[in-house]
Amino acid sequence: MLDEHKFYTNQIITWTKKFFDSPGLDISDDNQDTVYGSRPDEVNAIVNGDIRTCLPDFSARNIVVEPNLYILGEAKTLNDYFKRQSEADNQMNVMINFLKKQPRPILIYSVPDSIVETIKNTLYSKLKKFDAENIKVEVIDQFFK
Predict the structure, then answer these.
(1) Euclidean distance between CA atoms 93 and 71, whole angstroms
(2) Please, what is the end-to-end C-alpha distance for the chain in angstroms?
(3) Using one digit for the tens of pLDDT, what is the confidence trace for 38-47?
(4) Strands 104-110 and 69-75
(5) Structural domains in the chain?
């Protein structure tokens, strides 16, 4: 499962570099070495009146471009999504409520093709619920290149 999760995280990195690679792009992901690499920081947001926290699998920022770019990403295997549903739900809620306050927010999920539509529908529903339709959403699968 770890190798599969790493694969989906790498898909997010590939997508980000394909569309946003430029000087000033700072990428952090959970595949990097804990000592020498740059891993994502926890994200905090107020969700339904409570302060919530999550640890995304991926983050990227570029403060050199205007408006500043901020990307958060999550890699989900089938098992990860369905067996840890409450954690997955919290992650979506926190990342959406954090990102909606950023100048140029993007939320990307990398998942198996069999749940792409489920993830999209869930995310778009949450964007409406949290008045966060300024966030660009991308959901890619294992076939993205």
Answers:
(1) 15
(2) 21
(3) 778 899 999 9
(4) parallel
(5) 2-140 (3.40.1350)
